[in-house]
Amino acid sequence: MVHDSMKNLQFDRRLQRRRGWLNDKAFDAHVEALPDVSDKAETITGDAPGAAPAPGAAPSGD
Q1: What's the CA gap between 13 and 22, in Å, rounded?
Q2: C-alpha span between 53 and 47 (Å, rounded)
Q3: d(C-alpha 51, C-alpha 11), whole Å
Q4: Distance (Å, whole) CA 59 – CA 8
Q5: DSSP assignment string, 14-62
């Protein structure tokens, strides 16, 4: 159980630059093994209530 917790902490971004904690080769291998979740990404538009208009957009005249 403790081993699983330490394994998850090993790749924590806050601890990545700690000397002797993680080498670049292990980090790169971990990143390559992560699943591709780009299909879950959404495009954010300025249409949401209270959202700032896009730069260069004409005022809506509400």
Answers
A1: 11
A2: 8
A3: 34
A4: 48
A5: TTTTSTTT--HHHHHHHHHHS---GGG-----TTSTTPPPPTTPPP---
Output the pTM of the full model: 0.46
Question: With left for phi above 0 and alpha for psi between -120 and 50, is residue 52 left, alpha or beta?
Answer: beta
Q: Are 46 and 52 in contact (CB under 8 A)?
A: yes
| pLDDT in single tens digits along all 62 residues of the chain | 567 777 777 777 777 777 878 888 888 888 899 899 999 988 887 666 666 666 666 665 55
Angle at 27 between CA 24 and CA 30, to 5 degrees: 150
